[in-house]
Amino acid sequence: MILITRPVSQTKNLELLLNKNNFDYALFPAFEVSKLQTKAPVEKYDIIIFISVNAVNYAEEHYGDLFTDSSKVFAVGPVTANQLFKKNITVDCFPKTNASSQELIKMKECSALSKRKILIVRGSGGSETLKNYLSSSNQVDYLEVYERIPCELTRIHNESLMSFVNHPDGILMATSNESLINIKRLVNCVSPKYFEILRARRLIVFSERIKSSAEKLGFIKIETTQNPSDEDFVDMLLNKKL
Q1: What is the pTM of this model?
Q2: What's the N-to-C CA distance of the chain in angstroms?
Q3: Which pLDDT tens digit goes with each residue over 79-99?
Q4: Are 8 and 32 in contact (CB under 8 A)?
Q5: Could you tell me if 84 and 53 are in contact, meaning their C-beta atoms sit under 8 angstroms apart?
């Protein structure tokens, strides 16, 4: 059994893939994503960096104000880049695998930036890694277009958790550090003993940064996808099918 911790509004594609490959699953949303009411910056930027698929989608109303003929567009990984491609936006730089801010920083196009105006499009309260690195020699600003709202415990959480812990085997997913924190909070609201069960289960995460956080929480069987996509997640399941 797979415990899906994505926002309910963003599980359709994953559910289709799991159904297609005959995987049993239960919904256990750790948070929901909500659009922020923001205004496009008046200033024009040399480089615009998109941190996630959500950043691409929720910033769309501002595209006409953001992009100029000379703007270059970066993405934190191939899944985010692909979402930009779908919206007919050329992406000038993105890591082909291991999507993360750290991987983007390693690329010459990013690491060599100096005296540029850079806009990072993201959700509120994300990692500061990219800005901290780039701001030493560039002007770096944020456009925050969405927020993650932690879920409160519901009947669905209780039912899904009971199915998962009573299943002889199961796999948990975590798509962000915030997801991990909220999973722990929600499970502990039911019973701390259930979180001990979860920590012993196989956990698939979407980045090395999330893996590090999971290790600190005591998870033992942690695997990392190459890219933060539903397809990569299911590929890992198929390689070690339950």
Answers
A1: 0.87
A2: 8
A3: 999 999 999 999 999 998 777
A4: yes
A5: no
